[in-house]
Every structure is written in C-alpha cells, then in structure tokens.
Specification:
single chain, 475 residues, alpha+beta, Arc Repressor Mutant, subunit A, 6-stranded mixed sheet, 18 helices, globular, DNA-binding, transcription regulation, DNA-binding transcription factor activity, Lambda_DNA-bd_dom_sf
C-alpha cells in the first residue's frame, strides 16, 4: 500500500449516495463518527489504510478504483482543453483534477460532447473540400492554431515569391560564392555583421538546430544536421538579415491575423529565400530542363539534399521562364502532414493527397527508393506522382531518427518533360493509372480495398445478406 496520503472525499460520497445511506448510517457501518466522515468527504482528512480496507470490505469496491478515481479521464480532459477553442481557459490542471475527481460523470459527458463537436467539425471540413472540388466557394472553418492559418495561406497561393527571387539573385552576385556558398556566407556574416559561425555537438545543443547568441555575436549550428541542412540554416540567418524588408512586405501581403502567425510565416519565407539562394532560379531551371527534372541530378549539381531540391521544384513559376508546375506533400508514417505546396497552389480540390493508395505511404517500406505512379481521380484528372523517404536530423545511437516521406506530382500531361514517367507501366502514350481519391471521407469509389472511412455523402449499405469488400460499403 502506498504511503502517500489519499484524499478521496468525492469518491466516498459517491459510494454513500449509491448505497442510499446518510452520513450517520455510513459512519456507523465503518465504525467512525459522522463528523469524521463529514471531514473525509470534504477532503479535510485523508483515508487511513484501515479505513480503506474497511470500505473495500463493507461495500465490495476495488481499492485501485478508490485510489485512482477519475485520474483516467485526466489525459482526455487535457487534450480537450488543448483545443484552440478552449486553450487558455484554465490556468493549470488543478481544476481538471477536481472535476474528474468530484464529478467523473460530468467529465465523461463533457468529453462526449467534445467528441461530437470534433466529429461535426471533421464532417464540415470534408463537406467543404467536397464543395470546393465542385467549384462552390465555402466559408466553413473551425478553430485554428496560428500554424494552421499560415499553412492555409501558403497552400492556397502559388509557391513563388518574385521579390524574394530577385533579392536572392542580387545576394548571390554580391557573394560570388563559386563552389563554396557555405564559406561565402560565413565570410559575409563576419564582415558585415561581426557574426561568427560555429558548429556545436549534439550534447551542447540538444534541442536546437540553430541559435544566435546576441551577446557574443555567434551563430551556433547543431552537428546533428547534415551538411546540406547546416548550409540552409546559415542561409536562413543571412537572408533574415539581408532581405528583412522584402520578407516583411510578403508577410503583410499574406494578411495574417496575429503576431504568432506572422512569426511562423517569417520562418517559412526565410526558408524559401534560403532555397532561392542555394539554387539560383535561372541556373536551376536550366539544369531541370536538361535533366528532365531528375531530383538526384539536381541535388548533386547544386550540393543540396533531395528534400531541398524537391522543394525548389515547386517554386519555378517566373513569368516567361516557368518550369513544370509541380506540387509537393510531406507526411510521416502515421499520416501526419508537415508540408504542402504547389507551383500554382496546392491542388487540394483536384488531388487531395490523403488517399492511402498513394505511393507516399508505401515508400516507408522501401527507404531511399523512388516509387513512381500515375493516378486517376474520380473526375478523370490524371497525375504523375513519385515519392521517396527522407531522413531527418541524426542524433546519438540511442535516438530514433525522424523519417518522413515526400511526394511530388504534376499533371500527367507533362510526362514527356519528366524523367520519372519512363518508369510508368503501359504504353508511353497511354500509361496505366491507379484509381485514387482525394480522401476516403469525400471519395465515392465503390469496392475500394483501401477504404479506411465511410464517405460523408452516401449512406452505408446495411444489408445483412450482403458483405462487401470494405467495412464501409455504401449503396
């Protein structure tokens, strides 16, 4: 038995009320005074070991239940109050503990209402996507975090910022880096701002990729990053200093609602500018066209990672000098979305990206390999897609590395310009396609073996005499 004092007044009161006893009657059965029982129920006295055993014996209850009470509801209540709609309502967890302890049925009812609310929000979101695909403008939206607002702002617009591209080209001319952009950036930071760059071991920077110390004028980079990512972090710091006015102008144009959203957007725009600096527009586009957008050729030619080169492919939309309009999706093995972008905006209405049959989900079983496919949407739209896993920052031996998967796609009509189309099955002029949908909740393909959720637009088929291929068959 734990030596920790157990205050379980509300639980004792529930036991007494369930048995239909007065305090006097229950006190008599436990062999204590009514006043002492009153103090216990008001949490002014703890339960002794002897009294715990007596309660268990007389009322046939589990001691674990007495000791834990409503604690099992705490994680769910915390998750509920972490929702953007409720965040900030409570100063700490104490009130949640009191609610789960004193009124577990009320807490369970609150959670039930919250789950119904979330289900309603999910259905509204699914219906909004469906209406958008059909060309109807909707304004259905739930509570959003600042990061969600920023993601939506970037996903809806083309992933091309002309002012940042021009600034990056001017910066490259100023640096004249040759084959050593990392060295040129370090020299520029030292000469123009008195900033020294130093790479530190993982143990010294366990939680940061990059940190600038204003007192010593030193920029610290974590050694857990690859050389390509170290270069990008230094480039981000440089463009934040060199291109601040241009970045601020782009942030204003996004019309974000709060300071936190603007800070997140600043990082995303600095990341964009860093890529533009590492892979200047015209030279990058020329190599793209010569290599037919072979990402491995691009990363070798410009000394960048696969992820960085793939990101850059979605940015090639300069008027009069545009490339194939690629779009991009990055997810982890659990399906969590990290990044979506597109040369003309991410094609959410036409493509979606949540279908389990897309190769971005299957490549986790083939790390480092590129999987190519041609997919066809229910409305007949066809896309060339290819996916590959990405390795995140590496740590020590005992740390599990982060692995995500990146999917790049474009309209299948561009297949003659893209090297990956040569891996498609079928005839060159008529490749075989895989039928997919935008997401299970808004997809009406019948008999799909990969269906994970029922469609919101169709009633389920509940014929006891017929069993279909999916648990969510519909009529």
């Amino acid at each position: 038995m734990s030596e920790q004092k157990i205050f379980a007044g509300p639980r004792v009161r529930r036991i007494r009320n369930a048995a239909g006893l007065t305090q006097t009657a229950m006190a008599a059965e436990l062999g204590i005074s009514p006043s002492y029982l009153n103090l216990i129920e008001r949490n002014q006295r703890p339960l002794t070991v002897q009294l715990l055993l007596k309660l268990a014996s007389v009322y046939k209850i589990d001691l674990e239940e007495l000791q834990s009470g409503g604690d099992s509801l705490l994680p769910q209540l915390k998750e509920m109050f972490a929702d953007p709609l409720l965040v900030g309502e409570l100063p700490g967890d104490q009130e949640l503990i009191e609610v789960s302890d004193a009124a577990p049925n009320v807490a369970a009812a609150m959670l039930k209402l919250y789950r119904a609310y979330r289900e309603g929000q999910d259905r509204l979101s699914d219906l909004s996507d469906l209406l958008a695909r059909e060309g109807h403008e909707t304004r259905l939206s739930g509570a959003r975090l600042p990061v969600d607002e920023v993601r939506e702002a970037f996903e809806k617009r083309p992933n091309h910022f002309a002012a940042l591209e021009e600034e990056a080209e001017a910066f490259v001319k100023l640096l004249s880096p040759g084959d050593d952009l990392f060295g040129a950036l370090k020299a520029w930071l030292r000469a123009e701002h008195g900033i020294a760059v130093k790479v530190l071991p993982v143990a010294t920077m366990p939680q940061w990729r990059r940190r600038y110390d204003r007192h010593s004028h030193r920029l610290f980079i974590s050694e857990r990053l690859s050389l390509h990512d170290q270069l990008r972090e230094v480039a981000i710091e440089a463009v934040l200093l060199r291109m601040r006015v241009a970045i601020d102008a782009e942030i204003e144009a996004l019309k974000l609602s709060g300071d936190e959203a603007r800070r997140i957007a600043r990082f995303e725009l600095a990341r964009y500018a860093a890529h533009a600096l590492m892979m200047p527009y015209r030279p990058f586009l020329e190599v793209c066209e010569r290599s037919k957008y072979d990402v491995d050729v691009l990363r070798a030619r410009f000394g960048v990672s696969f992820e960085q080169a793939a990101n850059r492919l979605t940015m090639l939309q300069r008027p009069g000098a545009s490339g194939v309009p690629f779009f991009m999706l990055e997810v982890d093995h659990a399906g969590n979305r990290f990044r979506r972008a597109g040369a003309a905006g991410y094609p959410q209405a036409r493509f979606g990206g949540a279908c389990p049959k897309l190769p971005v989900h299957s490549v986790f079983s083939q790390p480092g390999h590129i999987v190519v496919d041609a997919v066809e949407m229910p409305d007949g739209a066809q896309f060339l897609v290819f996916a590959r896993t990405l390795e995140g920052p590496q740590g020590a031996f005992h740390e599990r590395p982060r692995r995500t998967a990146l999917l790049l796609g474009c309209d299948l009509a561009f297949r003659e310009q893209v090297i990956y189309a040569t891996a498609l099955p079928g005839r060159k002029d008529d490749p075989m396609t895989t039928p997919v949908g935008p997401a299970c909740r808004v997809c009406e393909r019948a008999g799909c073996l990969a269906r994970a959720e029922p469609p919101v637009t169709r009633p389920l088929g509940l014929d006891e005499m017929v069993t279909g291929l999916s648990a969510f068959d519909f009529g």
